[in-house]
Amino acid sequence: MMQELRCYYNHRQHLTEQIARYTLKIQKSLRLMNVRLDVALRDVTGKSGLTIIEAILAGKRDPYYLASIVDIRTKKSTEEIASSLQGNWRAELLFELKSCLDIYRYFNSALKECDQVIEKLLLQYTPTAVVSKEKEKLFKSYN
Question: Which domain of life is it from (predicted)?
Fold first, then answer.
């Protein structure tokens, strides 16, 4: 079991490293187009960041439109965000951005799948009495 778990864990580490690598490549593609999404938002691959990237790839390039689709909980103003999103849209960098986003999403889905396999393995080898007692404790703490 430990060898199997170690194998899954090492694969998970690899997936996590690839996600980080492609997040940086996404940021670099944007930066080369003079789009500073990393300055406008805290997380380029968060909900708002991915929404903006998808809009850019769909052909919507107006900085004020892009700033308007950001989640309302974002701390920066629409003006600040729009000023960071005025880019020069180069076809080769848009292609690279799309490719990196596709690969980023693939590694994210592979990571979720790996996490599910690890969880199944851990549950399979966890004694049922321990699981039952933990569930019982959780149930009592909610009541």
Answer: Bacteria
